[in-house]
Design goal:
The protein has 411 residues and is an all-alpha fold. The protein is globular, with a radius of gyration of 20 Å.
Length: 411
């Protein structure tokens, strides 16, 4: 292998990071827009949060479909189509005149991101890397929060000076820029560059996901097992916490902070997003996904309880917002790594892609549910306590999944 080709591993990580950063991370920036959109259309926060539901549900459903399509269509064609559709949706969002258009374009935008999001990038990750998978997964998913950390204050400023329509156009430009390395250089397998997976000693060995797909042709394989069902329910519950950062802006305004400071809360939450996803990858490589996801669920619960019961100044709110960012690490980073531990290699990709739909569904439902509870009672405390309860139940279920007997394994 030439020295130049060795650098292609780094280029692949950059390409995957750019894709996931915008496909799965751009929704974090929408927290800035919910209040302006609600004011413009004279509706409650819950009504504008439905955009998030539409987008996330479409992304979650499209992910497994896109994975299946890779067996019939070129991987890069699917990815590039997704980028084009999502960018076009953001451009059209800058021209909307009614709520139904917001919802409809949420569907098209989510469909596009499903074609190049974390589920699709997991295929490339498993094909290209056999070692340090946890670390690279952490880096890749951490980039989802990096976009928000960098651009949240920028977009807040643009919103205040130029309005939310210009913010949508800016989102389109950001997405296209971050996806450009992937559009130009992303490859599904190292074989396309006459390379082998990083950490592999056998030149002729089949790449990770290709091998899984080959074994997955067995029609007798069993996917819906006890472990699968337990993890699916747990996932739906604990991903409710992932929408917390989207409500920090309104929460801050209700507690007397100005809009610029509230934008800082979101930035700190997204900085925590980056930090804790990296930590999740490293901790998983060291002690396993079970202990990692348990640790970070506990941190998330503590952060939500602080928001629910403590009266905090700016400094403590920034710290708490940072801890709230931990909520992203479970569904984005720990979940696929946990699936690698729990499920047989032959069904890993199928199992994860199906559970990812539930993960997206939980996140999609949680945003408007929290918003509607807030609209109903005028306080976030009841909704936050509901999320805490879900996290605790999810934590218990995860422990049960790991203790499930071996009868769940494939024949």
């Amino acid at each position: 292998m030439t020295k130049n080709k060795k650098y292609y591993y780094i280029l692949m990580v950059i390409a995957m990071c750019g894709m996931t950063a915008t496909a799965n991370g751009m929704g974090n920036l929408m927290g800035i827009l919910y209040s302006p959109l609600a004011e413009h259309f004279n509706v409650g926060i819950g009504s504008t949060n439905i955009y998030y539901t539409m987008s996330l549900m479409a992304c979650g459903i499209m992910g497994p479909i896109a994975v299946r399509l890779t067996s019939r269509l070129n991987y890069r064609v699917i990815v590039c189509f997704g980028v084009a559709l999502s960018v076009a949706s953001y451009i059209l969002l800058s021209r909307i005149t009614s709520l139904w258009q917001l919802y409809a374009l949420g569907l098209t935008q989510g469909t596009g991101t499903g074609c190049f999001g974390a589920v699709m990038m997991t295929i490339a990750l498993n094909n290209w890397f056999k070692k340090r998978v946890g670390l690279i997964m952490g880096i890749m998913t951490a980039c989802m929060g990096l976009v928000g950390t960098i651009f949240s204050p920028v977009l807040n400023s643009i919103n205040e000076t130029s309005g939310w329509r210009v913010v949508f156009l800016t989102l389109a430009a950001i997405m296209l820029g971050f996806c450009l390395p992937g559009i130009l250089f992303l490859k599904k397998t190292p074989g396309e560059k006459e390379m082998i997976p990083y950490g592999s000693d056998e030149i002729g060995s089949m790449s990770g996901t290709d091998a899984i797909a080959e074994k997955g042709k067995d029609p007798k394989r069993k996917i819906i097992t006890k472990k699968f069902m337990i993890i699916t329910v747990a996932t739906f519950l604990f991903v409710f916490s992932s929408s917390m950062s989207g409500h920090l802006t309104r929460y801050g305004l209700d507690h007397g902070f100005d809009s610029a400071t509230c934008a800082m809360f979101l930035s700190f939450a997204l900085a925590g997003n980056v930090f804790f996803k990296l930590c999740t990858g490293v901790v998983t490589d060291k002690v396993g996904a079970r202990k990692a996801i348990s640790l970070f669920l506990c941190i998330t619960v503590v952060a939500i309880l602080m928001l629910s019961f403590l009266k905090m100044g700016k400094g403590m709110m920034l710290f708490t917002s940072f801890l709230v960012g931990c909520s992203y690490s479970m569904g984005a980073t720990a979940l696929p790594l946990m699936c690698r531990e729990v499920f047989e290699p032959e069904i890993y990709m199928d199992s994860y892609s199906l559970i990812s739909v539930v993960s997206f569904a939980g996140g999609a439902v949680s945003m408007p549910v929290i918003g509607y509870v807030y609209d109903l009672v005028g306080s976030y405390t009841p909704a936050f306590l509901m999320v805490v309860t879900f996290c605790i139940i999810g934590l218990v279920l995860i422990q049960l999944a790991y203790r499930a007997d071996d009868t769940d394994k494939n024949p």
